[in-house]
Design brief:
single chain; 62 residues; mainly alpha; 3 helices; rod-shaped
Length: 62
Amino acid sequence: MAQSAGKRGFFRGAFDALIEARQKQVRSYVNGALLMLDDETLRAHGYNRDELKRSRSVSHMF
C-alpha cells in the first residue's frame, strides 16, 4: 500500500503535531528564563525584553 508523496499518514501527522506543540512549549519556557536576565545582558545577546514578553504571552494547553 504505497502513499503518494503529497499525502501523509495519520501517525506522521500526529507525530509532527506533537513535535510542534513541544517546540512551542520549550520556546515559552526559554523565553521565561531569559526574562529573568537584566536588560543589558539581553541586549548584549540580541534579545529584546518586549519581544520576549509578547512571545511568552501566547498560551498553550500544556
